[in-house]
Amino acid sequence: MKRALVTGGAGFVGSHVVDALLGRGIQVRILDLLTPPVHDGKLPDYVSTDAEFIRGDVRDPACMRSALRDAHYVFHMAAYQDYLPDFSTFFTTNAASTALLYELIVAERRDVELVVVASSQAVYGEGRYRCGRDGDVYPGPRSEEQLERAEWDHQCPECDGTLEPGWTGESVMAPHNSYGLSKRDQDEIAVKLGARYRIPSVALRYSIVQGPRQSFRNAYSGALRNFTVQLGSGVQPLVYEDGAQLRDYVGVRDVVRATLLPLDRPAMQGSSFNVGGDRSVSVLELAGLVGRALGRASEPRVSGHYRVGDTRHIRSDVSRLKSHGWAPQETLEDVVRGYVEWATSHPEFHNAAAAAHDRMKQLGVLRESASAVSTARG
Ligand SMILES: NC(=O)c1ccc[n+]([C@@H]2O[C@H](COP(=O)([O-])OP(=O)(O)OC[C@H]3O[C@@H](n4cnc5c(N)ncnc54)[C@H](O)[C@@H]3O)[C@@H](O)[C@H]2O)c1
């Protein structure tokens, strides 16, 4: 019987990966630290009792060594995702743990047949744009001065012309926050050390993943959770900037199919792939979909607030993964409906968004633009 190690297997995506592996008759061992604020110190009820559970740290060589014992496959899902300025934690948890994994596999001549790492769309930063004069451009982050003036859109760094947001393929990584930088390192460690030491490896760059089991306490989980909690509690949804930001959302079931695909497709080894929704919507459109799923009118409050370091538009081109036979099957409407049903029946449903909003304000991540200040003054 084949055995898999799933790091972060008590988390949102990892727990669904665990269930799918068990469903294929693969024995599963989970290594997870049950890190706050995502967890409250207890093993969540949804974690399958058919999997072996080790509470431990992916940064700790002894833990990783014992968790790796006899594993044929490794799914490295554990990660630190937050807005906190503890920069080194991103690199030790996301990147150094990946280097440690390869170090142990090489040093101990482990017979690992496949490593899959959960990379992220965050490796692209602002992603690809199209300028009528200069062609493809990859702008850097918007300046704080620009955001204070409520000028949300990028301009061409070469000619100051208007830019059209494109679909971003896998070729250019340009992260600009500590999470994205650490994920880029993780992605390159897996693909490059994997190739160098003949350890079959695949990096999957997930877009925004949505579905049941996403922690209400994760400051990083985005607009769908916030809109659901706000609208479901009768509060007008709060939209940052002007609400025109484009994103592609992907359902967790489609992400799990993509994550297990390398087991059946050896041709994927040695590469990175986008795993996205194949359709983009604006944040305002997303608020409308949540309102419809809840049967409530959604009149979002376009507040002029912005978050420092937010990406204007980002959407991933999934053609490379499609060439291996994968395509998203869940529509965005299904994803939103499924999430809303799960979230509204969750005991932590109420007050969760307010808490997340307050926390970001405390951390200084949330700021007001000139337009927000003038609106507030009437
Ligand atoms: N959810 C998304 O939208 C999304 C998007 C892009 C990439 N990803 C990536 O997918 C993976 C899973 O994300 P998720 O949304 O399920 O996150 P999650 O926070 O729900 O799960 C991560 C798990 O890792 C565990 N963990 C954290 N630090 C650890 C450590 N030092 N040692 C052992 N375990 C530790 C946590 O306890 C948690 O159970 C991550 O690698 C993340 O970067 C997620």
From TrEMBL:
Q: Name one Pfam family in it.
A: Epimerase
Q: Which domain of life is it from?
A: Bacteria
Q: Which InterPro entries match?
A: Epimerase_deHydtase, NAD(P)-bd_dom_sf
List the Gene3D superfamilies: NAD(P)-binding Rossmann-like Domain
Q: Using the record's annotation, list all stretches that form the NAD-dependent epimerase/dehydratase domain.
A: 4-129, 171-276
Homology family: Belongs to the NAD(P)-dependent epimerase/dehydratase family.
Protein name per the record: NAD-dependent epimerase/dehydratase family protein
Organism this protein belongs to: Eiseniibacteriota bacterium
